[in-house]
Amino acid sequence: MKVLKFGGTSMGSAESMNFINEIIQSNLDNGEEILLTCSALGGVTNTLIEFGGLAYSAKIEESILLFNQIKKIHFDIAAELKIRLEVEIETEELFSALYDMMQGIILIKEFSNRSRAYLLSFGERLSTRLLTIFLKTKKIDVQQFDSDFIRTKGLDYLKDEVDWDITNSQIKETILPFTSRNIIPIITGFWGVDSEGATRLLGRGGSDYSAAILAVGLNISKVEIWTDVNGFLSADPRIVKDANIINEIGFQEASELCFFGAKVLHPKTIRPVIENKGEVWIKNTFSPNNIGTKITKFAKESHKPVISISSKEVEMITLDLFATSKVKSVVLDEVFQLSYQKEIHIDMLALSEAQVSFCIEYNQSKFQDFLDKLYKICPFYHKTNRSIICIVSPKEVKGQIGVAGKIFASISESNVSVDMYSQNASEIAQLVVVKTIDTKKVIQNIHENLVVGIQAI
Ligand code: ADP
Ligand code: ASP
Ligand code: MG
After folding, report:
1. Ligand nearest to the CA of 228
2. Residue after which a domain boundary falls, among 172, 189, 220
3. Mind listing the pLDDT tens digit for each residue in 259-313?
4. By alpha-carbon position, which residue is closest to atom 21 of ligand 1?
5. How far apart are CA 278 and CA 218, in angstroms?
6. Average pLDDT of the residues in 408-424
7. In the structure, what pLDDT confidence band is assigned to residue 397 with cuts at 50, 70 and 90?
8. Which ligand places an atom closest to the C-alpha of 204?
């Protein structure tokens, strides 16, 4: 059995729905048992964010206009697929709930993260219904499910953690009766519910993670992430136009890249699948015969100095240890406790006797409070508009001489100064912090010199 996940990039048009149909037909022709999870139609989650914001600012006319636009996006695709009436009937209740929510936000002038999570889950509630109706017209036996059986821990409305025990047993209970009768489930990606039944999101791009959750719950070893590129690439194709496809990549290498910004896969997806002895594949919906990328525990040996590069925007903070009477270990202890309490994750850290520098992801709702409390621990200065560039080598690079030297030579060729640097002991990931404005040229240069230019270590 396989879990297939179709992202927003694969769900944006009638044409892409036809590609999905072909992919499913070919799986069925090959006798594969499958289940599906999907994102919202391309761009709809962002439109829902904008919609909630307009309602919150009491921009009534604009909110109604956007509400109608969201409806139109779905109904236009449905019309092209000749299922408009069925989709209108099936989504009537959802659209009326969405309209009520808009009025509620306007009236109460409140748009909490709880309401936001519920509102954003509508993208997937709508898209899975549309796809289900379409596939039924193609004589595929499918059943739509809302992911109410994915139980989250209730820690964060927008980026929650999974409660695995309850989720695993609920998935089996809900889904197996259908798969055992050869009915293909189509399950909303991106969200689950807490113990009170409130919708909780799994973070932006979280439908990939939904696929992993379903695979673990049903003990399925193969997860296919269907998107709009031919696989995991050696760099973000928006930065390096001719980035290479990586046919096979180790899970640690892929995890580092995804954690540090490779948008192709939600960073939490890989680990549960690999721990369950499975594989994650990245495949192109629009070119399904392309083999794609396999992410696996035991990747083939590679002798390239660098296999891929990613980047992530961060804030950089430097604590001035000489300005406090506290010893370094006390300062570190307090900073880690604060970051845990405020759920501000430290992405990178460098220590010396006089200073502690670290990078964190900007988080609008929690950041100022974090800084205020941090100031009570130790004086610091703060640099904005910085990015971590994550340069990943295969595990075979360990002990090889000169890779870091070549990376730094490339950076100096770009005439860019480095704010921070770190390398983990496995030598897989080298992290450098530069001004965000310099990220593109640094990545392009490292790619040119170390991914394309040099063939082997
Ligand atoms: P989906 O809607 O299918 O989930 P995403 O937009 O979330 O698609 O992810 C796919 C996109 O990720 C690609 O179109 C590409 O622009 C971007 N991307 C960034 N880094 C990489 C990388 N290293 N390999 C492949 N794609 C990448
Ligand atoms: N629709 C959600 C988002 O845009 C989840 C996903 O695409 O995976 O973040
Ligand atoms: Mg995605």
Report:
1. 1
2. 220
3. 999 999 999 999 999 999 999 999 999 999 999 999 999 888 888 899 999 999 9
4. 236
5. 12
6. 94
7. confident
8. 2
| Distance of CA 124 from the midpoint of ligand 1 (Å) | 19
- Which percentage of the chain shows pLDDT scores above 90? 91
pLDDT at 92 over 70: yes
pLDDT at 29: 97
Ligand 1 atom at minimal distance to the Cα of residue 257: 23
Is the C-beta atom of 262 inside 6 A of ligand 1? yes
How many structural domains is the chain composed of? 2
* CATH number for the domain harbouring residue 71: 3.40.1160.10
Range list of β-strands (E), 59-180: 142-145
Give nearest CA residue, ligand 2 atom 6. Answer: 205
Tell me, using a 6 A CB cutoff, whether residue 6 lines ligand 1: no
Residue 110 domain-assigned (yes or no): yes
Cβ atoms 260, 311 nearer than 8 A: yes
Among all chains, which residue has been given the structure tokens 């189509």?
A: 186
Give residues whose Cβ lies within 5 Å of ion ligand 3. 7, 205
Beta carbon of 190 within 6 Å of any ligand 1 atom:
no
Q: Is residue 263 part of a domain?
A: no
One domain for residues 176 and 319: no
Return d(Cα 284, Cα 307) in angstroms, integer: 20
Going by C-alpha positions, the residue among 177, 164, 155 that lies closest to residue 215 is 164
Ligand 2 atom with least separation from CA of 8: 7
**Residue 264 alpha carbon to ligand 3 centre in Å:** 6
Per residue in 268-281, pLDDT (tens digit) is 999 999 999 999 99
Task: Round to whole Å and give the CA distance between 253 and 199.
Answer: 32
Neighbour tally for 60: CB within 10 Å: 13
Q: What is the CATH number of the domain that holds 443?
A: 3.30.2130.10
Residues 181 and 319 in one domain: no
pLDDT mean over 18-24: 98
**Could you give the CA distance from residue 216 to residue 230 in angstroms, rounded to a whole number?**
25
Residue 138 located in a structural domain: yes
pLDDT at 299: 86
Residue type, 181: R
What average pLDDT does the chain have?
A: 95
Last residue of a domain, one of 164, 190, 220: 220
The band of 454, judged by pLDDT with boundaries at 50, 70 and 90, is low
